[in-house]
């Protein structure tokens, strides 16, 4: 088996495709959450604590000198990223919780035994007749 055919067999497996779709959707979801946190959640929080814009919070470690840029520790962006992560993790947790609940309800639903086909009924009757002793 050539390397190309092995790669083709690997790439078209369901798990790989599912994983790729999940990564793409996850990246898009991450952008939505980042926008939600940065544009919806953080402004009111900043307003509540005195009009602070978290993304602008930073400490200048070294001032700019000539062509060399300033060295800045942007801890506000880190705070924003941590909040993004917490919101994404909570959203994923809630999604998994709902899916698990649906699976439990599905598993708990009683399943009726399958109705035997007419052929099975006939065969069962024949078997039962063969088991009973015949009076001669």
From TrEMBL:
<keyword id="KW-0813">Transport</keyword>
<keyword id="KW-0406">Ion transport</keyword>
<comment type="subunit">
    <text>Homopentamer.</text>
</comment>
<protein>
    <recommendedName>
        <fullName>Large-conductance mechanosensitive channel</fullName>
    </recommendedName>
</protein>
<keyword id="KW-1003">Cell membrane</keyword>
<feature type="transmembrane region" description="Helical">
    <location>
        <begin position="16"/>
        <end position="37"/>
    </location>
</feature>
<dbReference type="GO" id="GO:0005886">
    <property type="term" value="C:plasma membrane"/>
</dbReference>
<keyword id="KW-0472">Membrane</keyword>
<dbReference type="InterPro" id="IPR036019">
    <property type="entry name" value="MscL_channel"/>
</dbReference>
<dbReference type="InterPro" id="IPR001185">
    <property type="entry name" value="MS_channel"/>
</dbReference>
<comment type="similarity">
    <text>Belongs to the MscL family.</text>
</comment>
<keyword id="KW-0997">Cell inner membrane</keyword>
<dbReference type="GO" id="GO:0008381">
    <property type="term" value="F:mechanosensitive monoatomic ion channel activity"/>
</dbReference>
<keyword id="KW-0812">Transmembrane</keyword>
<dbReference type="Pfam" id="PF01741">
    <property type="entry name" value="MscL"/>
</dbReference>
<dbReference type="InterPro" id="IPR037673">
    <property type="entry name" value="MSC/AndL"/>
</dbReference>
<keyword id="KW-0407">Ion channel</keyword>
<dbReference type="InterPro" id="IPR019823">
    <property type="entry name" value="Mechanosensitive_channel_CS"/>
</dbReference>
<feature type="transmembrane region" description="Helical">
    <location>
        <begin position="78"/>
        <end position="96"/>
    </location>
</feature>
<comment type="function">
    <text>Channel that opens in response to stretch forces in the membrane lipid bilayer. May participate in the regulation of osmotic pressure changes within the cell.</text>
</comment>
<keyword id="KW-1133">Transmembrane helix</keyword>
